[in-house]
From TrEMBL:
Stretches the record annotates as Disordered: 1-67
Bias (Polar residues) ranges: 15-28
Comp. bias regions, Low complexity: 29-42
Protein name as annotated: Kelch motif-containing protein
Length: 387
């Protein structure tokens, strides 16, 4: 069950002007969504051995004195360089017979809208090989959403080369050799970028985002509350349909799933960067009512988020609508009733960054690739070790 309220008040949120410029580079700055934004979930843990000994813990964790599995983030190290500096891109990991690969696709280099895809092989120790070209998206997109189920990824929305928000959706299938091929799927009902896509229970959910139209004068831009759902079956994406909207328009947020509840983390609503985390239960493709689940210790937008061992990780992002990029990593446990409890601060990244919307977790390694600060895209890839 999801908690319907939380004790204590929210930290103060930034209330500076929100907007993004018509080039698609956010005033939030630079440098959601979560995930990507991707759907995220914890791994099965705390399985006791047949001899009644300590639990068999997943990679990236260890048995604590309590008898449960726990993870320690030991720090971040440089893991490589992208071929092209970029922000507002999507990042994901896939396991194939040819090995495990980290993929980075789309975004902007600060000048052009990118459709290029890069990939690097992940070694058994989590270390990355060199990045190489891995094809292209059908169209360049800035700030698209990302959802993933195994070796199938869905990329939807974003800003196009015309600086308008898009309704396009592409389905990528990753082959046995690690190559990825994208084809067009059914379009979103409403154009937006800085939305999140989340896969769960055979559906993809497209939530919130920012709609932009530069073909009118003055150019129009507004956060949206739209929630859409499309079936995803055996790599085939069905048509999107509208669900009950969010309580308020929301953009630049992150999204994760834990125990059949979809959580939206931070973001921008109105002119404020939010501290609130809201959630809705998922059942049979239906979304329950949205309820307050917790608070971040500081306002946060364009962060990456993931779940591991029943704990929520929030990585980097920005605390203001203009500037405010941070290097901090936050972690909080989920309570039995679905509430997000108090956060602690973990070892920080070696540089501040926003607009690195996903930080995929694989076998105890977190990967933060690209992003930006002061509207300058980054090429550095960082590796965080969980043990």
């Amino acid at each position: 069950m999801l908690l319907l309220g939380c004790t204590g008040g929210p930290p103060a949120a930034d209330t500076a002007s929100t907007g993004e410029d018509s080039t698609g580079t956010s005033d939030i700055s630079s440098g959601v969504t979560s995930s990507p934004t991707t759907s995220s979930g914890g791994e099965d843990t705390d399985d006791e051995s047949t001899t009644g000994g300590p639990p068999i813990c997943p990679p990236g964790s260890h048995a604590a004195e309590s008898g449960e599995c726990e993870a320690e983030l030991t720090g971040w190290t440089a893991a490589g360089e992208l071929l092209k500096a970029r922000d507002h891109h999507v990042t994901f990991v896939a396991e194939t017979p040819a090995g495990v690969f980290l993929y980075v696709a789309g975004g902007t280099d600060g000048v052009a809208v990118l459709k290029s895809i890069e990939r690097a092989k992940i070694g058994a120790d989590g270390v990355l090989g060199p990045f190489g070209a891995a094809g292209e998206l059908p169209e360049g997109l800035i700030g698209a959403g990302l959802a993933q189920v195994g070796r199938v990824v869905v990329v939807a929305g974003g800003l196009g080369v015309d600086n308008n928000s898009q309704t396009v959706a592409f389905v990528g299938v990753i082959a046995d050799d690690g190559g990825v091929t994208f084809t067009s799927g059914p379009s979103l009902l409403r154009s937006r970028y800085h939305l999140t896509l989340t896969a769960h229970g055979g559906y993809v959910y497209a939530i919130g985002g920012l709609e932009q139209n530069v073909d009118v004068q003055p150019p129009a831009q507004a956060a949206v509350a739209d929630v859409e759902r499309a079936p995803l079956t055996d790599g085939e994406l069905g048509p999107f349909e509208a669900l009950q909207p969010l309580p308020d328009p929301l953009t630049h947020h992150a999204a994760v799933v834990h125990d059949d509840t979809l959580y939206l983390v931070g973001g921008i609503s109105g002119t404020s960067v939010r501290t609130e985390i809201i959630g809705a239960e998922l059942a049979g493709g239906e979304l329950g009512s949205w309820a307050l689940a917790g608070y971040l210790p500081e306002a946060r937008a364009t962060a990456a988020a993931t779940v591991f061992l029943d704990e929520l990780y929030v990585i980097a992002g920005a605390t203001k609508t203009q500037g405010g990029e941070v290097d901090t990593v936050l972690r909080a446990p989920f309570a039995d009733n679905g509430a997000v409890e108090a956060f602690e601060e973990l070892p920080a990244l070696s540089l501040t960054r926003a607009h690195a919307h996903q930080a995929p977790l694989h076998a105890g390694a977190l990967y933060s690739a690209g992003g930006s600060i002061d509207h300058v895209p980054q090429s550095e890839v960082l590796l965080g070790r969980l043990e």
